[in-house]
Amino acid sequence: MTGALVHRETVDGVATITLDSPANRNALSAQLRRELTGHLEAAIDDDTVRVLVLTHTGPVFCAGMDLKESQGAGADQQGVNELPHILETIWHSPKPVVARLAGPARAGGVGLVAACDLRLAADTCTFAFTEVRLGVVPAIISVTVLRGVLPHAAAELFLTGETFDAAHAAAIGLLTRAVPGEALDAEVARYLGMLTLGGPSALAGTKALLRRPRPTSLADDFAAMNAMSAAYFAADEGQEGIRAFREKRRPSWAVSTGCGSR
User: Fold this and answer.
1) Whole-number Å distance between alpha carbons of 64 and 31
2) According to the model, what pLDDT value does residue 262 have?
3) For the stretch 67-83, what's the b/e string if a residue is b when 16 or more beta carbons lie within 10 angstroms of its beta carbon?
4) Catalytic residue ranges
């Protein structure tokens, strides 16, 4: 019987979800997709969790869809319903999701990275949209990738399937930071320390703000944002944050992660 391929651990408000199928290069097999979905949903529903980290064991973050399962499968058996749900769950999570990559990502694995809010990788990582070289299209992952990656870069990389490095991934908007491998965990910890200082409702609202479509009218946009701002200032969390600032103390929601947060 196959063991679990995804694990979750929660410490100090941080839920770390780990892809643990290194023998299969953490490919998105049916089992891994099911388990990843369950862990994402459980972490989002857990009131003690403030931030999610998506990471991996082994030398590869994620090789994309499991091609052994895809061979000979019909269009209704390719995981086309599960993968969009996973990407949408990450994208719409009210809690920040941080991707931590110590190894390469390919195809669907790049889509997972692009769905996360912050994406931190070792500078030795490589990436590629390999779909066209297999005679398929990067359709599903384009939904998340094209919302952050520069259009001309996406066109080049989608069409050629060329492998590119972490520095280029950061330059085109796929990564937040690329750092030396020995500094990766410290950089992840630095971001977690900052994220856990944010109010939970404020973080969820800010994520919604970043994801929402922009109105065509500037006046409508200002009106909507004015109402949103006023509601958050008046809410209990906003009032607690203001009191804490004036009293020179940490707000009640701030989590001590041991990550050097200030």
Assistant:
1) 14
2) 44
3) eebbeeeeeeeebeebb
4) 131
